[in-house]
Amino acid sequence: MMRLAVHGAAGRMGRRVVALAAEDPGFRLVAAIEQPEHSCIGQDAGILAGCSEVKVPVSSPWPNDIDVVIDFSLPGAVDNVVEHALKAGASLVMATTGLSEDHHRKLREASEQIAIVWAPSMSLAVNLTMKLAQQTTRALKDIAGGLDIEILERHHRFKEDAPSGTALKFGELIADAYRDNDAQPAVQHVHGREGKTGARTRNEIGYHAIRTGDNPGEHTIVFGMLGETIELKVAASNRDCYAAGALAAAKWLEGKPPGLYSMFDVLDM
Ligand SMILES: NC(=O)C1=CN([C@@H]2O[C@H](COP(=O)(O)OP(=O)(O)OC[C@H]3O[C@@H](n4cnc5c(N)ncnc54)[C@H](OP(=O)(O)O)[C@@H]3O)[C@@H](O)[C@H]2O)C=CC1
Ligand SMILES: O=C(O)C1=N[C@H](C(=O)O)C[C@H](O)C1
After folding, report:
1. Domain Dihydrodipicolinate reductase C-terminal, which positions (predicted)?
2. CA-CA distance, 146 to 184, in Å (whole number)?
3. What mean pLDDT is predicted for residues 153-170?
4. Which of 129, 106, 128 is nearest to 118 (CA)?
């Protein structure tokens, strides 16, 4: 049984991780962590998550006897999370998005000592769609008349980063697929359009971020050609695809040597 600490335990994602972990005999929740001034401090993490009591209060101290940390918080917390995972010698599932290059450097450095999975989406369906997007790009990139790729993402109104980490990852993977051909000009990442933009260039990937209501996450990759269009769409109907993926990543990390892994590693894709 893995001793699990959830950081951001009172958040939208943290609550679903706590709820699913409570039903999984492979985990024992040992800490549900939030900042000391958080309004949920002291509440039972299970009750807060809408399931039965787990007898673990939301609290701020980090225990040392943990096997794995799952983090769904905000970039401002990430350095602290990494530091505590290192101190405990615990594996880390880092699911927070909007990270800077400095955060990524710290994750790379920490991964010399502990095993870390970082992925902007823990969802199986999203990761599979990423592979399909790469395959589609490779098949169409040299088509006569040209290929236009645009990434549309929709999320709830509370989301603080844009475009989503997942949209950025789609763009990065699609750009990699383009680069299979050295003759292809470098891809330009274009975020939204306004005003007299001129005609679309052939080598850009466009990103469009929509924020409405309580949408738990939706990504559409548009492959536009002259005469026909392909759209790959993956949409969550609730957050459990991400929470279940994070728990699968935590289990996969058990016994893994230090290193920085992705959900493609976890899902063997
Ligand atoms: N990889 C994936 O599959 C997914 C990733 N995400 C990402 O996970 C993150 C969290 O999403 P979500 O649960 O919706 O967000 P929430 O805002 O609901 O939850 C974040 C939690 O972290 C806490 N927190 C924020 N800043 C800090 C800090 N500096 N120190 C300690 N705790 C902090 C928040 O506390 P407070 O309420 O006080 O702000 C809150 O409890 C986002 O980056 C999102 O993009 C989301 C879904 C899937
Ligand atoms: O904030 C969210 O909700 C989500 N964030 C992740 C991202 O930025 O890609 C993953 C998912 O789409 C939900």
Report:
1. 126-267
2. 11
3. 97
4. 106
Q: Nearest bound ligand to CA 70?
A: 1
Q: Tell me the C-alpha distance between 265 and 35, whole Å.
A: 32
Q: Is 159 assigned a catalytic role? A: yes
High-pLDDT (> 90) share of the chain, %? 95
Sequence ranges of the chain with CATH classification 3.40.50.720: 2-122+239-266
What is residue 149's three-state secondary structure?
strand
Residue 89 marked ligand-binding: no
Q: Tens of pLDDT along 115-150?
A: 999 999 999 999 999 999 999 999 999 999 999 999
Q: Does domain 2-122+239-266 have CATH number 3.30.200.20?
A: no
Structure tokens at 240: 């459990």
Residue 85 above 80 pLDDT? yes
Nearest ligand to the CA atom of 156: 2
Q: Is the pLDDT of residue 49 over 90?
A: yes
**Cβ(133)–Cβ(232) under 8 Å?**
yes
Specify the CATH number of the domain 124-235. Answer: 3.30.360.10
Question: In whole angstroms, what is the distance from residue 87 CA to residue 68 CA?
Answer: 12
Q: What is the pTM of this model?
A: 0.96
Residues of the chain with CATH 3.30.360.10: 124-235
